Structures are given as C-alpha cells and as structure tokens.
Amino acid sequence: MRRIVSTSPGARRRGASRAVAGALTAAGALLVSALQTGPAGAVGTSGAAAATGSRPVSSPSAAADFWTAERMREATPLDLLSAGTKASARRSGKAADTASPSVRRGPERTVRPTLPGTGAAAHAPKSFPQAGGPWTGGGAVTNTAGRVFFTYQGRTASCSGNAVTSANKSTVITAGHCVKLNGAWHTDWVFVPGYHDGQAPYGKWAASKTLSTPQWTASEDINYDVGAAVVAPVGGQRLTDAVGGQGLAFNTGYNKPMYAFGYPAAAPYDGSKLIYCSGNTIKDPLFSKDHGMSCNMTGGSSGGPWFTQFDEATGAGLQSSVNSFGYTFLPNTMFGPYFGDDAENLYNEAQSS
C-alpha cells in the first residue's frame, strides 16, 4: 500500500496530476513518496496495442533456496521516503503535467474459482464491515492468499499475492509495485501461499516470469498498479493443483461490497498472519480511478486480493482488485486499482505463459 500526502484545494483544482509531489507509502513492503500518475515518466497509453511488460527469471530454484524461514521472518517494509527528496522528484517527473486517462472499461467478465482439495471452512467471522483484523474463517483464501518475498535495492522485502484460476495453473496476481518499482524489476521473487509464522505449508513458488500492466511498466501509473507472476512447479506439481485458484472479475463497476486480504508487516501488524478488511467500497474522489475501502492494513499488504461475491463460509470469491495505496491525510483507508481491460489483458498474458 502506498500513502499519498495531501495537496491544497487550489492545487487540486489545477488538476489531480499536481499531486505528484505528495508522499506515497507502499503497503507491499514498498513505502515511497510522491503521488504519481507516472513516477518514472509520462503516463503510459491505455490503448489495446500497449504491450504488457514482463521479466523472465533465470533460476527459480535459486530464488526458492534463498528464502529461508529466517529471511522470510526478517523481510520488512522499506522505510518511507521523505517528500521533496531527489528521489521523489524523479518519480514525479513528466507525469506532473499529464492527467491520467480513465481506466479502459469493456464488457464485464468473470472467471470462476477452481478450488480442489481445500476442505471445509471453519466458522466464518461474519464481520461486515471490518476495518482490519485476523482472518479466522478458514476456507479457500487461507490457501490461495500468501506472502510475496523479493529483493529490492539490495534489501529483502515483502508484499502479498493470490493464486488465481488460470490456463497454466501457475498464475499469481499482485500489485505492480510488488514486481517492479522505480524502473527496476525485483529479483529473488517467490510466492508463499498460506504463509504463517515463518512457515511455508504449501512450499515456496519461485517466479519464472513477472509481469505488470503496460502503464505500470512504462511510467508506474498508480491507476494500473497491477502485477502478475508465473511460478515454476514445486515437486512436479503446479500451483493451483496444490492450493486451488480464486476466481476473477473484470469491468464490474464501482461501489461494491468487497473483502480485502493481505499480510501487513508494519506496526501494529508483524506479517505473521493473514489479515482482512471488508466493507462497501467507493470510487476514489481525489486523484485516482481506484476503489476505496476503510482498512487499517499497513506495509506488507500490497498486492493482497480484493474480492467481490466473497463467500465467508467457503473463503472463495472473485478477485477484482489488489491492495495498492493510501493517502496520509485519510488514515485507515485503502485504495485498489480498478480491474479493467488492461488488468484483464495482463491476466490473459500471464495465464498463457
């Protein structure tokens, strides 16, 4: 999750893009300053011809071996950068003068969950709304959601992610900044479904390829902060054969009841367990085209799934967003990107890899 500082009302009237100088925090262990429509340059195109960015990984087995239980426990969110630094100015860049276009929206599409062998759910908490607390309901989400670990700027860091139904049975959906940030792709990238207390009950699934939307790849546009990974088999088994896959939903509109999950690792959380929020979402009235929800998850939760049509009894739903960012002047509120055509294209490319 990223935190964005406020700008004056006059600045907001001059355009949302002027807010680029504000500070962002990245919840997926990536805390950075500066609201952006594109921190690494001009806003990326949302046209159909735009190419999804990707990075092949040379040695998935080496990445899995790198992440010992101790390293997983010690992986922490990066420090919040101060607004007004040279780094935040570079992230602001050309995008300060360019407003992001509306997220492309086509026909609604849903993909149903595939959840073999997940077992019966425990008694669900039936808490709606919920501003943040441990998920004790059991069910499929405890297997499909997990922590993401990677190396960023020479340091170990963490995000969250989710296994989804896919043709290759090997696709993880996360946030764009959980695969690439400040122009560089993360390394040593692994997904640990069902993580708890340093344990990897279903194994460590190393990425053979990481991807993000063309807009995030080109300019790190916050409206398109969606990433994906294709993970290598573990012990000859593919990911969703082992843990199941949640469904997905694209172009389903705003103002929906939704559930968000993740592994926040910054205080008051420690990354040891799955946390959730739930509530009726809103469309961001400020600087992005994202969904918003009351939620107190912190650093480490970025990339965790948001679900529509979530069933507490089974822990299954349709993934429709990811934890992405928050505003510093609007505490305990999380925002997640709208899953439109470009998120759907990213999913299609990942599942066909």
UniProtKB/TrEMBL annotation:
Keywords: Signal. Residues 1-42 form the signal peptide. It comes from the Bacteria. Residues 41-53 have a biased composition (Low complexity). It comes from Streptomyces rimosus subsp. rimosus. This is Peptidase. Residues 41-60, 77-139 are annotated as: Disordered.
